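Hi C.,

You asked whether I'd gotten around to modeling the 311-residue construct. I have! Everything is below, sequence then structure, no commentary in between.
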Amino acid sequence: MPRWRGLRLVAADASTVRFGLRASHVKRAALADQILFGLFLPGPDLMLAASLHNVHERGERQFLFEHLDRLSPDDLLLLDRGYPCRWLVAVLNQRAIKFCMRVDNASGFACVRAFMRSDAPEQVVMLPAPNNRDALDYECPRKPQRVRLVRNVSPSGEQRVLMTNLFDDKLYPADCFAELYHKRWGIEEALKRLKHRLNLEHVTELTQQAVAQDVAAKIVCDNLQALVALTAHADADLPDSRRVNHAYAHTALKPLMPVLLLGARIGRKVGKLLRGLLDLIAGRTYQHRENLSKPRSPGRKPHKAMSQKNC
């Protein structure tokens, strides 16, 4: 498992999905609009856990809270700016879970606004204690929380503030957090792959159970593709500057998936097929360039029209 300074990186995020469903009277029919929440390992590009939620539920912080038991003190949780709040910081500190999350002026923290106005590269501050209701609901201490704020400037010149409970400035200097926060982008790419390359929103049946099974199956397929690409890169002893083409890896793996999963019926041929697949994938690489920016084009996302989606 690839690690960052001895820690396993885990990114958390959620995305709204709109399944291609038609109106029906099926019992326990699925809702078309739902939220997919996931915990993602940026190093090996694997989805650690995922769950579907109603769009009217309490939000991404609640979804994250329900998955915290999957994390350990050796994990480092990466979060975007939609997560910072007093009770979540208290819960993470109580459970000894290391975190790095982005905050901004809209977060409601006066200490963050004061830090933004200053010229300091970093500062240790105290967040206000959670209110009584949140402390009771989430069983967290109602005490002020000590955190470290780090200033980060993006290549485009945008000012960012990162909040963390990594206080050792020798082991975790301020200039290392830009690279660390950038690794969170892996979960954004994973959600895009699931939606567009694996057609996550195309489902086979109308019930919620069927939708959940389809989502789980596609996440497993994406994880298998990531493992095959990682193995092909390691077996071919490719340099770090060469990256496996994951789109080609998915295309090559897809027709062989039934054979590989039912390999007991064809015996030794499985190993030969897999070896050939790894060699084929290792031959399709590209040159990775550090700090290469590719801004998204403005406009609508390239989702297929609802009339094109399977029921």
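If it helps when you're writing up: The first strand starts at residue 8 and ends at 18.

Thanks,
B.
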